[in-house]
């Protein structure tokens, strides 16, 4: 049986996927808010998508049935019920889903080769750059999640961030963007004496961060995670050794003329 942590992670992933399937209207609203990014896939056609494995094909088939049978059950409970059904299946019952996955992977390889064959060198380079950026973004997200799990202190807030947190709810804007715009305008109108209060709070937050990050980094060194430290310890610079004077050679004295 798979570990409980792995099962929980899979359940949460499937819950997010089903949440997208079951709430299309909210997904459309989110997409409408996102800025348009010009990428290779949007200009020259996207490459074929990787096929689902056997286990992911089973929830895709069972999810509408479970939702219809249990309309008041949350998405997480739906995933749990589907996972229980999958574990209860025999190898013979799982075989059709596995076979579909094998056929889909074979077709995916053919489609991918066909897609790459019609690309120009510039499009191939653009596709590689997109993949590199996508992997770098995933890596940054995983690293940030790891740092949060390890309890890394939050960075100090700026004076404006502190002001925005205290006055966000009472801002006049109707949307988040409008509120931020109004808060920026109100901040610019504040007198220097009024801003001084938030500047002091920001300075105190910097002291807090400095103490907490130092303690956290010491703890990371004890755990053997020096790779998570901001800057590595500087090596001690050895003082230059003085050369011993050679025997039998007198020091030459230089006589400088001129006014003292």
TrEMBL record:
Subcellular location: Mitochondrion matrix, Mitochondrion nucleoid
Region of interest (Disordered), ranges: 230-260
Keyword Nucleotide-binding carried by entry: no
Biased composition (Basic residues): 232-260
An example Gene Ontology biological process: regulation of transcription by RNA polymerase II
Function: Binds to the mitochondrial light strand promoter and functions in mitochondrial transcription regulation. Component of the mitochondrial transcription initiation complex, composed at least of TFB2M, TFAM and POLRMT that is required for basal transcription of mitochondrial DNA. In this complex, TFAM recruits POLRMT to a specific promoter whereas TFB2M induces structural changes in POLRMT to enable promoter opening and trapping of the DNA non-template strand. Required for accurate and efficient promoter recognition by the mitochondrial RNA polymerase.
Protein name: Transcription factor A, mitochondrial
Gene giving rise to this polypeptide: TFAM
């Amino acid at each position: 049986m798979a570990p409980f942590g792995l099962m929980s992670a899979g359940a949460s992933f499937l819950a997010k996927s089903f949440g997208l399937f079951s709430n299309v209207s909210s997904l459309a609203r989110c997409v409408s808010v996102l800025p348009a990014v010009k990428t290779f896939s949007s200009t020259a056609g996207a490459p074929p998508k990787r096929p689902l494995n056997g286990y992911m094909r089973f929830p895709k088939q069972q999810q509408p049935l479970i939702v219809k049978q249990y309309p008041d059950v949350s998405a997480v409970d739906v995933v749990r019920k589907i996972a229980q059904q999958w574990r209860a299946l025999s190898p013979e019952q799982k075989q059709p889903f596995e076979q579909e996955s094998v056929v889909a992977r074979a077709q995916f390889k053919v489609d991918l080769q066909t897609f790459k064959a019609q690309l120009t060198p510039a499009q191939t380079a653009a596709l590689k750059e997109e993949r590199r950026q996508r992997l770098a973004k995933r890596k940054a997200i995983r690293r940030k999640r790891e740092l949060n799990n390890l309890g890394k202190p939050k960075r100090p807030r700026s004076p404006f961030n502190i002001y925005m947190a205290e006055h966000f709810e009472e801002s006049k804007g109707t949307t988040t963007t409008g509120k931020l715009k109004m808060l920026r305008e109100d901040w610019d109108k504040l007198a220097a004496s009024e801003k001084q209060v938030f500047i002091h709070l920001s300075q105190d937050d910097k002291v807090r961060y400095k103490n907490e990050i130092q303690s956290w980094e010491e703890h990371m060194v004890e755990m053997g995670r020096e790779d998570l430290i901001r800057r590595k310890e500087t090596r001690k610079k050895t003082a230059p050794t003085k050369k011993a004077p050679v025997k039998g050679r007198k020091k030459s004295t230089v006589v400088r003329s001129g006014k003292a």
